[in-house]
Amino acid sequence: MSTILTVFLTLVRHGETEYNVQKISQGQMDVPLNDNGKYQATLAGKALKDTDFDIIYSSDLSRAFETATEIVKQNTLLKQPFPIKSDNILREMSNGIFENKPSHEHDVAATEAGFEKPYLRKFRPEGGENEEDVSLRAQRFLAEMYEQECVQQNRACHILVVSHGLLLRELIRILLEKENSDNELKQKWKNILIAGTGPNTGISKFQLDINSNGYLVSAKCLSFLSD
Known about the structure:
The relative contact order is 0.21. A six-stranded mixed beta sheet has the order 3-2-4-1-5-6, with helices on both faces. It has helices spanning about 20, 35-45, 60-75, 105-110, 130-150, 165-175, 185-195, and strands at about 5-15, 55-60, 85, 155-165, 205-210, 215-225. The model has no long low-confidence stretch (mean pLDDT about 95). With about 230 residues, the protein is of the alpha/beta class. It contains seven helices and six strands; from the N terminus they run E-H-H-E-H-E-H-H-E-H-H-E-E.
């Protein structure tokens, strides 16, 4: 009989950057937090200060890694300094030729290519990714995480992942496919994800059941984008 391991997964979007404020496409550019973003990261840390994380993953881009570092700093249970696993698979969607340009230029190009709101992210710009590419990265990350942290260690654990809006959106969409809530609530969450990515330092929490083969059996959403 397959053993079921219970995993608690907390997902946090990075704090605000000046590119967020100015609506400039940053994608995989390494844009740091602004002062408000640092403050948001501190608040996120305080909100999670009593959570005893076993593993922490972060995108290697500084706005995410700075946010993860501040969350660790505010935590009352973690031994300092607590290691953060930096992983480029958790980077934001690459916007290719539209990075470092006003965000609306990507949307104009997507519209001209025949895509309509709210599905503009299905457009793949030159040198960049679309949401399907990001979803594949999200699936790969989850599979590797289940294998490394659950199957190989044969343990239940609490994992924190700090990443970016569009990557986290795809992670959540994957987890919702195994969510056990009523269909009306699940559809509400899915509609929110279609419309956007949630706030900077928005927090989502899931309880996951993983079998001994590293397969996600079921998921329960405990908190959705800080609701």
